Amino acid sequence: MATRSTIMDTNSFRPDDAAALDPATRDLTARRDEVLGASYRLFYRRPVHLVRGEGQYLWDVDGRKYLDMYNNVASLGHCHPAVVAAVHDQMQRLNTHTRYLHETILDYTDDLLSTLPVELDKAMYMCTGSEANDLAIRVARASSGGEGIIASREAYHGTSDLTSGVSPALGSGQPIAPSARLVDAPDAYRVDAPDLGAWFADRVRAAIADMEAHGTRFAGLILDSIFSSDGVLPGPAGYLREAVDVVHRAGGVVIADEVQPGFGRTGEAFWGFQRHGIVPDVVTLGKPMGNGIPVSGLVARADVLAAFSDTVPYFNTFGGNPVSMAAAQAVLTTIRDEGLQQHSASVGAFALDELRGLMATHETVGDVRGAGLFIGFELVRSRDGREPDRALALALLEQLRDRGVLTSVAGPHGNVLKLRPPLAFQAADVDWLVGALDESLTALGA
């Protein structure tokens, strides 16, 4: 029997829950069953019917207000006026593909590259993070001459054929590519190692050796520098350097999947990988890039990209279209104008301290960790034993939903709350979050 996917099934509505729903919600879930494929999932036993968003807040069909602690798609905040205005203005003038000349994509690329290390000097554009990571894998294979890709054991990198093959978080119903290898994530809470960086580098080194022993040539390592699907594992700054050196010595390409940790979210740096003082060969961008407008990108070293781009023509019909580029430019400008990277650092540090305060009264809060506005809140049966408590985490989600706080879980055991609000989240919202967690844990006897 297939195990459940931690990102799709651990916090999802089940048909057995339908009887407890109000008639209107039950009718909507029935309509979904009738017209959408069975792969789709809804959050919560009582799904939330949302109709409006603004900043860090959402409202349902009955006018109830929620605090969004999960959505990094509208990374600046829901319906940010700068993005709305930019999209509206450009849509009134032109929207077409990249086979025609247009300044917007070039101006945006200049601005984007200015935020990255100088070694990363070429960009390409798509519509989704899955497409960006798919292309990154193709580039890594072309550059290295290899096939095998290493990913972390609970990683999520997309839903295309190539990316789903390195996305174990999709569950055992989705096979891992035969040429891929999975390595344990560097979990400072559970790994007893004097040097976490050396520990992780050893796992990468062993995976490369295993590939070669089975006749698979190594192509590269793809990683999300905060290991968000593995349970939000920021780790000590700099610890990824040794693993990057191992990859390069083996002739491989390092792909930094910045879909989740990028665009100032971790606070300490604009890009998640910069916390570690590394320069990847390829960087992929997605969800937060357009604040809800479908746009994604790939940035790479020219010499690494050349092995692919000098040989294979690439065209993504609407990747890099003027409307999406206008949205992306509005996002970059707003992050600077509103000081959102610094905001993420300061408000995130305050939230982290307040959340850690719950450990004094709730023994089941095993660990609270994070960087900027990206926080993992781990639930355990007891702090001494550190045994993951998935059932408590799922029950806690439902309690939080009833108190107007929306989030979900991550990690191989589904026991880590992933707290990743829009960057509009304020220090004043911390009371709502911490109070709801305290009340919910108390209600659950935890």
UniProtKB/TrEMBL annotation:
Keyword list, A-Z: Aminotransferase, Pyridoxal phosphate, Transferase
InterPro entries documented for this protein: Aminotrans_3, Aminotrans_3_PPA_site, PyrdxlP-dep_Trfase, PyrdxlP-dep_Trfase_major, PyrdxlP-dep_Trfase_small
Top-level division of the source organism's lineage: Bacteria
Keyword flag Cytoplasm: no
PROSITE patterns: AA_TRANSFER_CLASS_3 (PS00600)
A UniProt-annotated Pfam family: Aminotran_3
GO molecular function, one term: transaminase activity
Transferase in keyword set: yes
Family membership: Belongs to the class-III pyridoxal-phosphate-dependent aminotransferase family.
PANTHER family with a match to the protein in the record: ALANINE--GLYOXYLATE AMINOTRANSFERASE 2-LIKE, PTHR45688
Designated name of the protein: 4-aminobutyrate aminotransferase-like enzyme
Source organism: Frigoribacterium faeni
